[in-house]
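thread: overnight batch results

M.L. [08:02]
morning all. the overnight job finished for the chain we discussed friday. pasting input first so we're all looking at the same thing
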Amino acid sequence: MRWLLLLLTTAALSVVNAETGPFKGVKSEVTISVIDDKGAVVEGAMLDGGYYSPYGKNYAADLFTGCTDTNGVYMAKGIAYQDMGFRLRKSGYYQTEGKYDFPELKDHEHLPKLIRAKVTMILNKIRNPIPMYAKKVETVISVPNQSFGYDLINGDLVNPYGAGVVSDIVFRLEGYCNDFRDNDSTLSLKFGQVNDGIIPMRTNRDRGVSDLKTPHAAPVEGYTNKLERHVKCEKAKTQFGFDKVTEDYDVNMNYVFRIRSRTNGQGVVINAYYGKMCKDIQFYGASSNGSFLIFRYYLNPTPNDRNLEFDPKKNLFKDLKPGERVTEP
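M.L. [08:03]
and the structure it wrote out:
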């Protein structure tokens, strides 16, 4: 289960101290309040999860399962060593995964006898999933310092590099890549029309990680026509002799975009297509031998419809390879 992985996402807390002996953990009561995306309490949401434990099977102990009460609340009890994770489900809502890190455990000199904590999680309602063009793209930027267009409706690079016709997004990779330990690269995205663009939207993990990574509907305004991502690796520049790597990649980052915009005489957008990218864009160095580019996108096929809920059973792309398929909404 993915929620169990949440218990192991940070380095393990030291459980043995030379002076005090094994850390025995602290009793805790975590009150989990569940609301929907409009702020209303969610009664009857099912929870299952557990506490990280260095002594438990698969590093999980004090497993719990139950439902929120009429106030949308459930209390999870257990011995806190590091963190606890859980999954939230209810018919008619998108699944959400949550976590609590127990900052109360950071100071072993002043541990409380009982930890009482409160967290609020959001369950997004399932409103109107629709067919979309949805695809995981793994392509190659064959030449650095050169622009490559990508057609989101045809799902391919623009001619002569693929079967695409319209450059909805133009990718350009600049920099150098001597090898995987010595590179400095910047990936830029530009959009085909002046009023096209993109909005970064970072997941707030404090409110849970929903299967629906973006809002139900794309915003009307706020799009920027250009985005840049950067990655750099320098050989053994750190104090301890390890390579120094800096990159913009953010596992919590998602995007909403607008393409093929047309405006009236007053500059108001009167026609456009809307979509989203879930998870951040990945790329691997500006190499003359070719550089991998990976992104996942969803495009609503109806002009001016800002709905971003995808029905995974109704992908408008047919005969996708297994590695190109997307299964999340």
